[in-house]
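User: Here's a chain of 119 residues. Predict its fold as tokens.
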Amino acid sequence: MVPVSRFVIMVSEAPYTSLKPYTALRYAASARKRGLETRVIFFADGIFCVKRGVGRGSQTVGDFEEKVRGLIEEGILVQACSAPMRLYALTEQDLIEGVTVAEDVIDHTLDEQTKVIWL
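Assistant: Prediction complete.
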């Protein structure tokens, strides 16, 4: 059995439709603390979770953008899938600073050393 060294979290939910995007951030922080190379990929409607300004000033769920920036500062790679970005006509400038674009999302999930969860 190959030991797990990478953790990928795939998030497809838009912000405020459920708590799944927030859960993803908690999982990512936990995996990073355990020494795993950690990546969070937002795809489908989940890309709106990494759009600049999301949750800014929220009195209920908090500033999602601030939470994402915190993960990036901890060394977690946060990405937006390029396909829905094209679909919704979003550019890299629309994303939270530090979020990168993933061109081949599936490539990051297909090896034995990577544990993947889909939210």
